[in-house]
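Reviewer 2 asked us to include a model.

Predict the structure of this chain.
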Amino acid sequence: MAAYGARMRRLREERGWTQEELAERTRYSSKHISGVETGRRPATLKFSGAVDAAFGLTGTDQSFDRECRQVRHGVLLEGFPEYVHQERKAVELRLFEIGIIPGLLQTPEYAQALAASSVARGSITADQSAERLAFLAERQQILEQQRPPMVFVVMDESCIRQLVGGPDVMAAQLDRLIDFAARPHTVIQVSPFAIGERRSLNRPVTLATLPDRAVLSYAESQAQGNLERESGAVASMLTLYHHLVAESLSQADTVAMIREIRKGML
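Predicted model (structure tokens):
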């Protein structure tokens, strides 16, 4: 659980604690603390509870106990809980997705269709599916805040053309995208197939701008998610994202394309 350990180390260092001081507060050895922070030793629920008590996170949605349970139960990809913690604080989000509508913009029915497919393949259980859907609904609440983040979305054309859940579900999902485009804090663009090799990003990525203007990038592999804080790597990703935006359709042309696809579903 490398992401778990990295977050634990960051919180410890933010408080100015040494590994020995955290060990004293949790009643675990400094060797144990070091092993978890470096990913060499797996975290347990008992250990997570002790860490939460030390950091004052017991019972909160940022608790290590919650992260440990979600990752161990296969509900969330390792590293994703830490990203979501940052997502909740972000003042700007820049998303790029391929193949499916970004989670923050999914309708419940669209998300349910994706989850049901994972259950049918045996990738997750029905209980895990329900937990994922509940977690997604919780994430989407940031868009309904009094002061929501500014959200910039670029979707590969495949996102709006790939039929998910049948015509009715997909039509409702496209309607939701059109509604989002009309919001003052959301910009939606499509990266059309026609740009070919000029598409600067070849995997989904999210860039989160925090209140202090620091920017983090998040991307996933098959095994885990990676939250990148190193300024050079993030700056390179941000540059690629801006190139993608420049090559993508305007929001007006994007909405026109979505409407045209929507008509074909009547």
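The chain has twelve helices and six strands. The first strand starts at residue 92 and ends at 97. We have added this to the supplementary material.
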